[in-house]
């Protein structure tokens, strides 16, 4: 949700674009270690006992954002958000898979990926709308979030408690079955690249619209960032409803096209090209992530599903946190547009390489039409 507000925070607290990327990336810095512990913990004590405190932490983070009086508050709030999402991600995905009425793991994975991307897309649009046109521009968004988190807390208390023997919990690295490691590595690479592009849009596009396109409307910057994830969710919904297989190579090729459009938008200063980049790249990310998550769920043994999903999400969020820091530092040296073009070129080459490898792998089973 804070994505379109970073420019306002920058003006309010007086920090550089590098700080924007660091505030964005600290989220992944706390999320990844949390994932290392939370997946096995959820397998041991049950998903509800992990998710409930995670939602409570998200509420504390929202309160910190609402009361922010300096950059330290932003770092603290993002760090708590990372812990919250890290604890909840694998546990909620595993819970969806295990409670899917017909036992269709692929359809449950599709729902999980659509929830992640759809929620991530609606947040920036809503925050941009409220910040541009409503009172309390740096607070109202988070007050609304606190209300939504209260509803979420009420919903997750209905999750079933575990029955039967459960594995004992101890801190350990997530373990991937030996026979599945090659396919898991490929799924992780697909997700890493997809979410690296998400991070670029969420962290840098608000500055891109202001610095490159000379448009300072917060709703526009929030919409440009949010559209990426909204169209990712739409692509996942269409595939799920039609029972179409999500092929990672198709998603990665669309990501390359989206990055090319993003570079073209900066070169021509045309806002429609920026929005087209969000639509095309978002659809590609949605397809790629859906395919990667479905493959991971197929590979995961039932008794350690949350642990395997933790490893998957750990790779995913490294993609969120690491590349965008490089973009921020490069932008400080050579300017925002050359930094975005460099990122787009390098990521495009990586996408094409992984897409070539993905074509040799079997497709995951298609979700049965809902």
Describe the largest sheet.
Answer: none
Q: In the CATH hierarchy, what is the class?
A: Mainly Alpha
Number of E-state strands: 0
The helix-strand sequence is HHHHHHHHHHHH
Descriptive overview:
It is a multi-pass membrane protein. This protein is mainly α. 79% of the residues lie in helices and 0% in strands. The chain contains twelve helices and no strands. It has helices at 6-13, 17-45, 47-66, 71-99, 105-133, 140-156, 181-211, 218-242, 248-268, 271-299, 305-334, 336-358. The longest helix is centred in the middle third of the chain and has 31 residues, at 181-211. It is globular, with a radius of gyration of 19 Å.
Offer a concise description of the structure.
It is built from 12 helices and no strands.
Name a few traits of the molecule.
mainly alpha, 0% strand
Topology, please?
Layout (H helix, E strand, L loop, with lengths): L5 H8 L3 H29 L1 H20 L4 H29 L5 H29 L6 H17 L24 H31 L6 H25 L5 H21 L2 H29 L5 H30 L1 H23 L12
InterPro entries: MFS, MFS_dom, MFS_trans_sf, MFS_Transporters
Membrane topology: Multi-pass membrane protein
Subcellular location: Cell membrane
